[in-house]
Predict the structure.
Amino acid sequence: MNEASVPAQAVADVWQRVRVTRASDEIVAQFRQALFEGRLRPGDLLGSEIALAKKFGVSRVSMRDALRTLEASGIVEIRVGARGGVRAAHGDPGHFADALAVQLALVGVTPVEALDTERGIEWIAAELAASNATPEDLRQLDRLLEEARGLVDQPVAFAESSVAFHAAVAEASHNRVIIVTLTAIRGVIRQLHVTSTTPARTESVLGYHQRILDALHRHDQGEAGRLMQHHIGITREAAGRPKAAQSSETRTATR
């Protein structure tokens, strides 16, 4: 069959009806573009809902829909009262980390996936912490490690203390992207840390944390990163193994 003989209906079936973009979607797109181009700065007063609706040439209903989406996305803040109006939002890393953790859980990210990601990011975090940690950062890590030593008989408290140690290493990197990303990832695997805490596991964790901290005090980037990568790697490899195998592995890791 040549091209000329193809039925018109067969060609027509390729197309779909064009849908006109909602006005509110276009407004949101413009705000996002202005943000990423640096034309919006935190705290900038953008006007009232009525003034913005006139500026965009849309109804107040469309403008209100757009502002709801922008507020939910953390792009704008809406205030009421004499000093009210729409302002460009100030960044809230905690809000972003919580939202990302929720989305990771909703799409069904597994602990193994999270640990694979954590392993790479914590490696870099430890290396950066070895260079960037302040004396106060190191004192905080010292305190957390000492606290953990007194919690070996309390699995839940020990797991939380261990998570706090890793969070403090991330904070000592002074890299906000790393801090926020790791905060979100830990939301996915927090329960895994609690359920996997055994006497053998606590011994392994304390040993690794001490050696990582020693490397940070020496400002040894390579050693800090290597130890952190191996430390997270043990948890990653044990995540899918029977408990007996995990117990044997943690005993071996402390030697």
In short: The chain has twelve helices and three strands. The CA atoms of residues 135 and 217 lie 9 Å apart. Residues 94-253 form a domain with the Four Helix Bundle (Hemerythrin (Met), subunit A) fold (CATH 1.20.120.530). Strands lie at 45-47, 76-79, 85-88.
